[in-house]
Amino acid sequence: MLTVGIDLAAEAARTAVAWVDWSAGRARIIRLVAGADDDLIVEAMLGADKAGVDCPLGWPDKFVDFVCAHRAGDVRVPEGLVGRAWRRDLALRVTDQVVHEQTGLTPLSVSADRIGHATMRCAALLAELARRGRPVDRRGRGAVVEVYPAACLKRWGLPYRGYKRAANLTELGLLVDRLLEAAPWLDPGEYEPLCRASDDATDAVVSALAARASALGLVGAPTAEQEGTAATEGWIVLPTTSLDRLVTDA
């Protein structure tokens, strides 16, 4: 099996893609690119058995409705709610709220934070996949799933904060150490130095591991009530098992 992890940013400079090959109880990083453009990302997705994208696959349905109502001049605030309370469902998707309930972490708001720029890029990439005959099921049932590296790391008992940006290379190195200790079956090969130098690259690798968990069915799924919303907003797949199951279930 080949899984791909994509740490998607608004521009290529902060985007990384990892290819991980799985066989015989082992996993090997066979390619890792920091500074990935759209063409490379699309080709990586098309060639993968499962691809995990660290980026929202959609916007909150209620936010979309709100923008449409605003355009028509007909915004209505829900009765009995004031301030942040009525804006919560505009800022956070259902899956974001589920992730918070289950992990204590809150994903960036696609409608009220800068990650919206990356999501615009992601929307164009998903459209290109559809044009090439591989439409994406935003609920995570197809070849592309939405992932959240910080939540995966926390679920796996690994450091999940404080390793971002050049000022925290020591912490990033410690995360790589812990990851390789927890997953001795993962061979980073020639790409270990890049993981230690780039948090984007490391997040791409974690995204590829999350894609493997999804491929094996070792992740949470939306409930029947959440299905319709997940189909439009997207759904973050959270691992439900330890790292070791990623190879023992091969």
From TrEMBL:
Protein known as: DUF429 domain-containing protein
| Organism per entry | Nonomuraea jiangxiensis
Q: Name one Pfam family in it.
A: DUF429
